Amino acid sequence: MMRTLLALAAAATLAGCVNLAPTYERPAAPVPHRWTGATAAAAPLPADWQAFIADERLRQVIASSLQNNRDLRVAVLNIEQARARYRIARADAYPTAEGSVAATRQHSASSDTTTTQYTAGLALNRYEFDFFGKVRNLGDAALQDFFAVEENRRATQLALVAEVATAWLTLAADTERLQLVRDTLANQETAYDLVRRTRELGGASGLALAQARTTVESARVDVGTYTSRVAQDRNALDLLVGAPVPGTLLPEAGATAAASLLVGVPADLPSEVLLRRPDVLAAEHQLRAANANVGAVRATRFPSIALTASVGTQSSSLSDLFGRGTGVWSLVPQIDIPLFDAGVRRANVQVSEVQLKVAVANYERTVQAAFRDVADALADRATLADRLAAQDALVEASQRAYDLSNALFKNGASSSLDVLVSQRSLYAAQQSAITLRLAEQTNRVALYRVLGGGAD
Fold first, then answer.
1. What's the pLDDT tens digit per position in 41-56?
2. CB-based contact 155:274 (threshold 8 Å)
3. Which H or E run contains 296?
4. Which distant-in-sequence residues (6+ apart) come within 8 Å of 339 by Cβ?
5. What whole-number distance in Å separates Cα of residue 310 and Cα of residue 123?
6. What is the dihedral of CA 186, 189, 191, 194, to 10 degrees?
7. Among 33, 125, 175, 181, which residue has the least CB neighbours within 10 Å?
8. Per-residue pLDDT tens for 396-405?
9. DSSP for 105-149?
10. Edge-to-edge order in the sheet of strand 304-315
11. Would the pTM count as exceeding 0.85?
């Protein structure tokens, strides 16, 4: 028995020496080596979101979301599940043994006798020697699946940080818009009262009074619209965070001006940075898993050797259970040789090889989508500075035009219509400025996300 077990142990050490999985090579990225139009900035993109976000209130909101968001919690639980599956697959590479103790009483009616049999033993369950790497490849596939789930968790966290930051910035912008329309309403009500008094004195027409009234009512509509929008923004932020956000952590009007640090994008940025994006890494791990699965399926076309064994003792007397001459053992080696299966094993190999090609295509598509994400964000950022400068100049010019027209009207040198026109132009320019500042801030957040949380 000992010689047999030693021989089988030696055979087990040789098991797995043959690996039928294809040699893994990372596919070449089907994208240009660099983005065109990337410009240098003051600092490299920070790898830590806490270094990226400058506003302390927004930091606390994001930290709360990382603790309470249900999507992220599911992603963490998926990691635990994948880890357990890997342990199960890994355990198949080792034999399993079970111990047992039993007592059997049997009565014979013909002889009117009762016999008792006591047994104790150790059993080696069916153990398959992994000569062709099937078990090892299944373990490797499970390990790569675990790594992919971990990268998916990182991708979920990165997306959550970006979504919370964007929702917070949107709330800040709409809060600023609400303040703007309230101020505009107050100014227009003042202008309306002035036109009404002028009308009473015969210095303004009924048309001018009606036009002034339309601007007041329009501003009231905008107040209601943005009041509702701010409430919806708060609800969206609460949902992302997973808990109500305290009022002390909500943004104030104008918070978009300094909510995040400058996102530095190195000049002539190489596209290799995409290979560190969580979704790209997850796709590569899934590709590796598919590659290992091909080896496991190929191994099923070859003979397999399995062993079932047991050793123990038995006696009719409990006191003699471990005495001399009570030992028993059994050894059941088994060789399974594939003979005829109507092409099932060959078809399974073909399926696994096609799945590998699908995984390659998915990986390449993920890289291409990631490249486009960065290219779009860079293209948008390329003109944002000029657009912001032009919009600020437009606001300044519109403010001056409004001030001049208002002064001329009060002195009787201009009509109320000129005041209304300049006031509307100023209001539109201010609204556009808020929108552009929000776009500039969300573009920074988008760059942080599409570059995988850091370019260095």
1. 434 556 677 877 878 8
2. no
3. helix 278-299
4. none
5. 4
6. -130
7. 33
8. 999 999 889 8
9. EEEETTTTEEEEEEEEEEEEEEEEE-TTSHHHHHHHHHHHHHHHH
10. 97-108, 113-129, 304-315, 327-336
11. no
